[in-house]
Each structure stands twice: as structure tokens, then as C-alpha cells.
């Protein structure tokens, strides 16, 4: 039992030494810490595993409203990507933001084995990402009272933010960004407007929120204007043509929608109008489009265009509702008890991608479309509106159309309809229009869910709103200047900046040399003199350009941990073999065989051999002594063979009797459980043996 306890002690010590440092956050934060997920430690490299928190925050105990969130923080962030928190919201209304977390901008995707795998385009590398299921009743969030208006959604989210920052006060002063898609085009402007109103009406002790930007993808911002774009978009994309036998039907629906939009344009005053908040007439255009383009000659699961990506097909009338196909992995994954436990889900609710109850309650009949809120927000907060060019339902033509009609910053629409190429990693990723705090991006080769199709490119949208990009100008063949916005893979811009600076310095020196003069020193040379040249030379010769210090430190740490484990396992083995060889007590309680046993305790022998061994130890070094401890073990309490000159015969068991010292009478054979050999009693024992024989 003693050996087993020691073995378990060392085993636990080995495992503990191999674990990462203990999370040092508050006790409250630890309640939301996510330590494991199926596939996390087998499919994801350690340096890519973010610090994760997840759980349900109570907003209103009186109506049982709780919001679910799942946050990701990069444990090795680049300096330019720190102190930044981004809240992600999916649309619907009533669709879970875990679509965004596990299908789009989060660090993980779910494979067919219901295990997570890493997403190289995760947005958490550029900002702390917080995915929130809202409003109440969406995803893992729950409530007894559903929101019916967008101002209620706003108020609820502001309460959520206050609760969130109570748990994570270290993020309270971070830059705040919002991102999302589809019906989040209503959520995000409303919440941003609520934050700005909060900042203007602070009470004593309150702090403003550091709102820095909004990113809205394929947003449902101006509903009727968006619906009016369905027919021209479908014609341009080749989805429908005037040759279709039911062309007259869709054209009629389009004209009815046009009449409503004309009324809106004539009274675009930000006031509430019934014809503007009701979009059923205009939404009929899309349903007609999907119906008249149905091809019944194709297999059932290919008869309808996918309304979220027209290059794909689906069954009718789903027409995209079964997409993306990874949903068949995500849904059962989020319904597993193990996963819900990992995510700190307290109630036993079943996760659904979209809640019909939320959508049916949120009519927003008394909420003006969010397009009316954008001009005032743009006065202080930059906005990026991005659209995947393959989407039908929230297509880019609808977004460009309402921008053309909107007045902000003292002007209507963009001053020029010219577009600028967006370059990512040396390839054209789309085109951009940008003026007066508003940027529009048309993302090539992307659907309604841009991060799903082009994850790494989509992450660079954060660079566009934070200003982490370059503007390059080139001369065309017609001698015109062409401008491009250039973004880079994560961390590559710093390298590009260093390279550009070196090229500029070299060019300046070359130009000076051509003019016959001596090149003027750069700013760094003026300060550091020859030292800058020496440092640059050392950097070029000794440190590779792709050197990753954090990765090297991580590898060294793992090697050290491995060595510690090996040493501990070696120590356990030595300890185990030592305990295994320990004999049982020489004191017997049962009958003896009568045979003699020549034994010697190791500590007795050590006294006789001490002088000889001491001389040997004097000649040993530190490492030799240490190695000897492991290889020879500890002989205390073990039997050690003794030379013949040290042998002493001791017979136990039969023939041993006790005498009463006062009477001299023999007490007969007795138990010898407490029998002790003492050096002072050896002569007396020998005499007793002679008497009995």
C-alpha cells in the first residue's frame, strides 16, 4: 500500500508538470472557463487553442431571461491586435450566433466525426471574439418573454454588456467592434445607436463604451430596397431571363415593390410609416423568382436555386435552408451532453439553429428600418458594409442601391461610382468604395456567409476598419493612376512595412549617388550611427525573416516538460522496484522450520563498511553521486548480504521460551511478535539457548 501511494503521488506529479500554467483569472471567470471540447487536444495544436469562456448570463430574473455567449481570446496576439473586443451577432431573426462561431468566423469547425478542427481564418487572431445568442430564446439563450421591437433588443443587449464586463472588467476599456450578417443589419445599428446614446447620457460613476466600428455582412438594412434588387440581380447572374414563360408574373411583383419604394424615397424622413415597416409585398418577389426557376427535371435535391449562393442547388421549397452542409455535423455536436457540459450550459435545453418563436414575435412594427440610423452613427463611428457577390437574398446590388440614396456627412451617396480593387495576399479579393467613414466591399467568390467561403480573406475586413492596410498606386497602360487597397495575411503587414522602408532607403541612397552626392543618412542612422548598420547586419545574417519567437519558446517549454516527465517516470520505476524487493519482516508469528537464517540489517553493515565507502565517495563528483542515488537506491530497511566475517546465527521460532525473571519458571513457548534483537542481549540469549538444548 505504501508503494502504491508513492507511485500514485509521482504519477499525478508527472501529469501536473505537463499541464499548461493554471488560469489565473477570478473565481467568477473560472465558472465560465472552457477547458475541453471533443477533438480539441487531438486536432488543434496547442499554440492555436484560444482562451475560451462560455455560459449563460442572467439578465432579468423576473422573466427568466438569460443570454448565452462563447468568447475566444488569442493567447499569443500580435501587438497590433490587442485591446480589441468584437461582438458577433447572427441574424434570422432568431438564428444562433453559434453558426458564426462554428461555420464562419470562430476558431473551430466541426467535422463528420463530431470533433472540432482548426479554422485558419479565425477572426480571434485579430480581436477577442464574443459570439452571443440573442435576443432571448435564440440558440442556448432563453426567456419567458420574447422581444417584439428592436428597441427592446437594444436594451437587452446593453444589459448583457454590463453583465459581461462585470465578469471581465479587464476588457472594459478595450476598443469595441460589432460584426454580423443578414438580420444583424437591423440588430447592429440599433445596438450601436443605443451605445452612443448611453455615452451621451452618462450618470455619475458610469463610463462610456469605446465603440470603434461596425462590420455588417450581407445586411438586411433597407428591406424593401433590398427586395427591389432581386429581379435585376437574377437577370445579371443568369438565374432568370425574359424568355421565361412566367416572366410576366415576376415582373408584376417587381413593379408592385417599386411603387412602395417610390413612396419611401419620397418621404425618407426617419418617421415611422406603415408602408415602410411592412415588407411582405416586396418579399414576394424572391418567392416568385425561386418558384418560376424551379427545374423539375433535375433530382429533387437540385431543383431550386440556393438563395444564399446561386451557384449551388437545393430541394424545393427549401432553396438553401439545408445549407451549409456542415449543419448536419454542428447540430448533433451542440446537442451532446458532453459538449453542453464543456460550454457550461446550466439548463437542459435543446439547441436549434433558428427559433421560430423568436422570429414570429419580433415583428418590429414600431421600429423604423436601421438604414435611417446609419447617418448619425457615421458621424463618429466608421462602418464597413460587405457583401458576398454570390448571395441572392441580401445581394450587393441592394446594398449599393440604398447607399446611393442615403445622405451622410453632408453629401448623398458616394461622390464617384468608380471602384477600387481590394488586394489580399497579392490577389484581387473584391472591390471597394469608401468615403466619409463608410466603406462598401464586394467580396468575390463568397456567399451570404462570407467567412464560411473565404475565412482568411474575411478576417482582413477587420484590417479595413482598423486602418491596418496600405494604399498602392500604379500607372496603367493608358497612363492613368490606379489605386488599390492592400491587406495581408495575419502578421504579414509588419514584414511588408519593414521591406518597404528598406526599399525606400535604398532608393534614396541610389538617387543621391546618381546626383554625385553622398547619400543622406536615414532617421535611424542619425540616431544610432554605425550601430544601426551593425544591428541590421546581425538581423539579416542571424535571424530568419519568418522567425517566430513565441513558437520557439513554446517548443522549448514542451521539451523541458517532456524531460521532467521522463525523469519522474525513471524515479517512479526505481522507487517501485525498490519497494517490490522489500522482504517481509523476519519476525514470524507462526511455527518455524527450525532452520537457521543468516541475516544482517543494511544499516549495521553500513557501520562496518562506512570507512571504506567514505573514501570512495570523496573521489566522486556531484553528478556521480546523484546518479548513484538513482541506480543503487536506498538500502535502509532492506536485507543486504554480509561478508562471512560479519555473519551471526540467529534462530527464531521453535525452541524459544520466556522465563519469569523473578521466579525463574519457564513460561513456555510464546508469541514473538514483538521480538527485538538487541546487541546488549546477545550473550544472555546464547546462554538461554544452551539451557534449552
TrEMBL record:
Per UniProt, the ranges with Polar residues bias are 663-672
As recorded in UniProt, its EC number(s) are: 3.4.16.6
Q: Which InterPro entries match?
A: AB_hydrolase_fold (IPR029058), Peptidase_S10 (IPR001563), Ser_caboxypep_his_AS (IPR033124)
Which residues lie in Acidic residues bias regions? 678-693
What GO terms in the biological process aspect are recorded for it? Answer: apoptotic process; proteolysis
Q: Where are the transmembrane segments?
A: 559-576
Entry protein name = Pheromone-processing carboxypeptidase KEX1
**Species of origin:** Scheffersomyces stipitis (strain ATCC 58785 / CBS 6054 / NBRC 10063 / NRRL Y-11545) (Yeast)
Amino acid at each position: 500500500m505504501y508503494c502504491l501511494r508513492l507511485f500514485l503521488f509521482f504519477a499525478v506529479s508527472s501529469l501536473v508538470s505537463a499541464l499548461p500554467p493554471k488560469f489565473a483569472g477570478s473565481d467568477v471567470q473560472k465558472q465560465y472557463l472552457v477547458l475541453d471540447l471533443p477533438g480539441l487536444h487531438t486536432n488543434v495544436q496547442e499554440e492555436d487553442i484560444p482562451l475560451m469562456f462560455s455560459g449563460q448570463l442572467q439578465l432579468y430574473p423576473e422573466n427568466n431571461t438569460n443570454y448565452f455567449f462563447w468568447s475566444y481570446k488569442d493567447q499569443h496576439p500580435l501587438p497590433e491586435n490587442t485591446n480589441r473586443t468584437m461582438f458577433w451577432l447572427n441574424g434570422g431573426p432568431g438564428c444562433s450566433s453559434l453558426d458564426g462561431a462554428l461555420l464562419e468566423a470562430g476558431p473551430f469547425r466541426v467535422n463528420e466525426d463530431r470533433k472540432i478542427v482548426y479554422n485558419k481564418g479565425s477572426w480571434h487572431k485579430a480581436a477577442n471574439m464574443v459570439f452571443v445568442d440573442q435576443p432571448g430564446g435564440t440558440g442556448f439563450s432563453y426567456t419567458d418573454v420574447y422581444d417584439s421591437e428592436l428597441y427592446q433588443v437594444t436594451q437587452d443587449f446593453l444589459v448583457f454588456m454590463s453583465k459581461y464586463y462585470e465578469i471581465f472588467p479587464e476588457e472594459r476599456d478595450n476598443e469595441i467592434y460589432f460584426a454580423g450578417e443578414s438580420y444583424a443589419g437591423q440588430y447592429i445599428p440599433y445596438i450601436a445607436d443605443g451605445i452612443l446614446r448611453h455615452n451621451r447620457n452618462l450618470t455619475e460613476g458610469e463610463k462610456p463604451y469605446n465603440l470603434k466600428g461596425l462590420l455588417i455582412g450581407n445586411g438586411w438594412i433597407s428591406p424593401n430596397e433590398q427586395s427591389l434588387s432581386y429581379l435585376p440581380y437574377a437577370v445579371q447572374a443568369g438565374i432568370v431571363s425574359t424568355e421565361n414563360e412566367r416572366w410576366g408574373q415576376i415582373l408584376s411583383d417587381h413593379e408592385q415593390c417599386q411603387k412602395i419604394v417610390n413612396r419611401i424615397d419620397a418621404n425618407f424622413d426617419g418617421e415611422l410609416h406603415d408602408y415602410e415597416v411592412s415588407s411582405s409585398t416586396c418579399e414576394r418577389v424572391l418567392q416568385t423568382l425561386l418558384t418560376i426557376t424551379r427545374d423539375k427535371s433535375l433530382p429533387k435535391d437540385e431543383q431550386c436555386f440556393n438563395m444564399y449562393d446561386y451557384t449551388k442547388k437545393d430541394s424545393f421549397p427549401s432553396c438553401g435552408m439545408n445549407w451549409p452542409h456542415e449543419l448536419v455535423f454542428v447540430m448533433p455536436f451542440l446537442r451532446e451532453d458532453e459538449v453542453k457540459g464543456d460550454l457550461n450550459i446550466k439548463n437542459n435545453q435543446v439547441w436549434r439553429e433558428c427559433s421560430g418563436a423568436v422570429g414570429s414575435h419580433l415583428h418590429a412594427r414600431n421600429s423604423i428600418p436601421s438604414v435611417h440610423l446609419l447617418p448619425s452613427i457615421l458621424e463618429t463611428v466608421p462602418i464597413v458594409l460587405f457583401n458576398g457577390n454570390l448571395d441572392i437574398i441580401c445581394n450587393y446590388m441592394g446594398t449599393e442601391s440604398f447607399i446611393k440614396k442615403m445622405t451622410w456627412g453632408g453629401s448623398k451617396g458616394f461622390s464617384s461610382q468608380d471602384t477600387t480593387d481590394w488586394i489580399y495576399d497579392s490577389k484581387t479579393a473584391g472591390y471597394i468604395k469608401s468615403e466619409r467613414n463608410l466603406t462598401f466591399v464586394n467580396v468575390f467568390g463568397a456567399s451570404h456567409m462570407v467567412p464560411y467561403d473565404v475565412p482568411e480573406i474575411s478576417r482582413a475586413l477587420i484590417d479595413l476598419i482598423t486602418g491596418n492596410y496600405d494604399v498602392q498606386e500604379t500607372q496603367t497602360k493608358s497612363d492613368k493612376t490606379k489605386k488599390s487597397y492592400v491587406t495581408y495575411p495575419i502578421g504579414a503587414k509588419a514584414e511588408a512595412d519593414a521591406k518597404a522602408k528598406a526599399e525606400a532607403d535604398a532608393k534614396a541612397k541610389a538617387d543621391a549617388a546618381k546626383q554625385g552626392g553622398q547619400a543622406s543618412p536615414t532617421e535611424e542612422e542619425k540616431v544610432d550611427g554605425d550601430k544601426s548598420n551593425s544591428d541590421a547586419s546581425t538581423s539579416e545574417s542571424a535571424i530568419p525573416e519568418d522567425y517566430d519567437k513565441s513558437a520557439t519558446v513554446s517548443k522549448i517549454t514542451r521539451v523541458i516538460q517532456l524531460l521532467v516527465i521522463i525523469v519522474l517516470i525513471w524515479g517512479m520505476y526505481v522507487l517501485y522496484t525498490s519497494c517490490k524487493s522489500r522482504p517481509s519482516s523476519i519476525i514470524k508469528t507462526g511455527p518455524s522450520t527450525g532452520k537457521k537464517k543468516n541475516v544482517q540489517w543494511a544499516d549495521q553493515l553500513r557501520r562496518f563498511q562506512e570507512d571504506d565507502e567514505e573514501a570512495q565517495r570523496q573521489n566522486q563528483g556531484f553528478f556521480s553521486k546523484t546518479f548513484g542515488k538513482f541506480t543503487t537506491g536506498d538500502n535502509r530497511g532492506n536485507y543486504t548480504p554480509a561478508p562471512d566475517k560479519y555473519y551471526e546465527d540467529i534462530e527464531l521460532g521453535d525452541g524459544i521460551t520466556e522465563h519469569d525473571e523473578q521466579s525463574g519458571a519457564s513460561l513456555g513457548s510464546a508469541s514473538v511478535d514483538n521480538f527485538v534483537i538487541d546487541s546488549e542481549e546477545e550473550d544472555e540469549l546464547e546462554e538461554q539457548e544452551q539451557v534449552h538444548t
